[in-house]
Fold these 2 entries.
Entry 1:
Amino acid sequence: MNATDRTAIPSEPGAPLPDGIPLAVPALRGNEWRYVKECLDTNWVSSVGPFVERFERMAAQRVDVQHAVATVNGTAALHVALLVAGVQPDDEVLVSALTFIAPVNAIRYVGAWPVFIDAEPDFWQMDAQKAVEFLERECRWRDGALWNRTSGRRVRAILPVHILGHPCDMGPLLEAARQYDLTVIEDATEGLGARYRDRPIGSLGDIACLSFNGNKIITTGGGGMIVTDREDWARRARYLTTQAKDDPLEYIHNEIGYNYRLTNVLAAIGVAQMEQLDDCIASKRRTARIYSERLADIPGITPPRQADWAFSTFWLYTVLVDEVQYGMGSRTLLRRLEDASIQSRPLWHPIHSLPPYRGCQAYRVEVADRLYAQGLSLPCSVGIPDEQVERVSAAMRTSAKNTTAL
Ligand SMILES: Cc1ncc(COP(=O)(O)O)c(C=O)c1O
């Protein structure tokens, strides 16, 4: 099958658009073919092999931690990270309300409950002040543990999700975690390469997860990684992701494990992609700079910002659209762009008001809903041609009221 034979589902994020500008498609321009061929030539195609180890070493080095365990995807990484972090059924985990749903589902996979924390209005990340406020006002310390006064459950962990390539304000969260003996599990799936106060995200908490799905800054098609400095946790993650095999010959399994390991073929793509990560980050940042220059003076459009304590990769370039000032809302603009064969996408529906989670506690979630209503991600594939960024920017300008086309 060649590229023109592929039939795209028009609404699928990242799906190729004939003559259009897709939201974010993979850029496989390095050693991917060569390394995959090496797997096929040597018959190392399964879940062990030299590329798995190499990919893990590269990820650990990049995040600046001691250990990395490759997984089939980021959701599996989160599931196992929660298990090895000791999150128990009926525990509670503070998590961002404005996120892709995977980390919240992973909390439920282990039988724990999410407590939703709002997004802050400036960089759209988990609001660290509100998280701390929740811990101080809504919980109490008893018998060497922290308990939620309302639910009566034990609060075990904080799971900040660094969204869109920008870090959360980790300082206050880490401080509170120290004070209340909470584990910090970072969802760094959207933030590989981002830095918080000059530290790579993924190295700040106790354990972190990466994703390499098709729209991430680097991709293996599907893949994930658990990263941590804790040798015992890495060992346990490796054990749980390989069916908890206690005897390789006799099929002895002393616990329930999972078949969550990444294959060597996909890890080969991962190694090739990791070699290009700095270029990918540079490309994303360059695209963000051009967009922000072009869109800055359009009334009602708020470009994304980078905190002075952050290095953002601008993984998914997202703006806010103020319906009154701009003259149309984000969803109308989405359709207008679609008419011009430009793919854009809203932010995620805040999870606390989705059916599976409506009964869960949401602490002062006020901002996330506005960000959801106004947010729109624009095409920003690695290596997107400048001409396409200009075309999107011009379409944004033409759609605005009180502005003239470029
Ligand atoms: C914030 C966040 N967490 C987790 C995931 C899950 O990763 P995966 O799709 O690799 O399972 C994703 C991406 O899909 C994500 O954006």
Entry 2:
Amino acid sequence: MRRGRHAEIVGAGMAGLTAAAALCQRGWTVRVHERTPGLRAVGSGLSIFENALRVLRAIGAENDAVRGARRGYERETRDGHGRTTSRMKYATTMFEITRQQVLAALVSAAQRAGAEIVTSSTATTAGPDATVTFEGDRVLRADLVIAADGVHSRIRESLGIPWRRRWLRDGAIRIMIDRTPHELAHPDGRKNVEYWSGHRRILVAPCSDTELYVALTTLDSDDRAKRLPIDKALWTEAFPCLEHLIARLDGEARWDRFQVIRMKRWSKGRVAVVGDAAHAMAPNLGQGGACAMMNALSLAVSLERIDDVPSALLAWERRERPLTDHTQRLSSLYSALTTWPDGLRNAAFWLTFHVKWLRRRYMRTTLHVPTGTEHCGAGNHAAGRTA
Ligand SMILES: Cc1cc2nc3c(=O)[nH]c(=O)nc-3n(C[C@H](O)[C@H](O)[C@H](O)COP(=O)(O)OP(=O)(O)OC[C@H]3O[C@@H](n4cnc5c(N)ncnc54)[C@H](O)[C@@H]3O)c2cc1C
């Protein structure tokens, strides 16, 4: 272990906080800059599969992350009338967890490891010599700068590495509502169910005994369906079986169009770009945050193995990029299903879940053992809810 090196990290999301914890655990001093005044996440759920759980375990955040969260055993697709069209048992452990709980677990792990987190601190540019500039023209120097500032990254822009954003045709409204006693007792509580009706779909994913995450996905061109507040009559017409649930979709909701970010390289000199800033993807596989955390941990591992920072960053990208590229491709393909006729789409799901080769490709990222977690034992999931 090398001591005495310092990192400045821009962005206190899943990528930045994971990198902070992992670097501190390897002897670095770390300061994380977050532009918002607090550390509050969008109200929504996250599917956290075994690959992401392993990263949380490696940095000491797993128990806090899964406490009281709901373990899922299978996923189903159904039509708008509630008829099951495909079913798949998860081959790995999966928890549906509120985003705020995952973030809080990461904050605690990073702080326990010794990271300093500074809020209301907005970075504007970074240079390959590991300098970072902030609003007000304050400049900090470090041995390493990590840009983990999300899909609209300013640091990515300032580095001059070629990159491109591809808008996908679909997007989602995310909303959290209370779970009813009826829902709590129902066997659907053990599943994530995705209802499809033409190009519209509704994911229903319980996160805990009290919270239900609902994502309404549609085409960006579907102006009425993406409107806020939610057009309940329109959605009920497409999903009559969810009438009672749709009636309860009040409160804070948010529309996001899906997008894919690809950079020519993930680093320049002593600056690394990680998470959505480097490789945002459609959320269809529940792997965007997982890739952010896996790549953040493996970045710290690479820096532990290779002394020279630019060389370590190149080795890191060589190792991790193929899986991230695969995950981006697959999640975009899933988005493309949105425009397929119902019958064809149902057949595609059925084949994916029943043909072993396709199923393994679909599950490849969730089955992956992330770099830096090879020696983590199986998780103790007693803190989560298993029913
Ligand atoms: C609808 C939807 C559903 C999803 N579901 C899942 C799921 O089930 N499972 C999963 O694994 N992933 C999911 N994802 C993806 C996941 O949310 C992202 O991949 C993940 O949040 C990326 O983390 P990040 O740290 O890279 O970026 P972010 O979470 O965006 O964090 C970036 C942080 O940087 C801060 N910041 C930005 N600019 C600056 C600046 N200039 N200076 C300082 N701070 C700055 C921001 O305020 C923010 O806190 C979903 C995404 C969407 C849109």
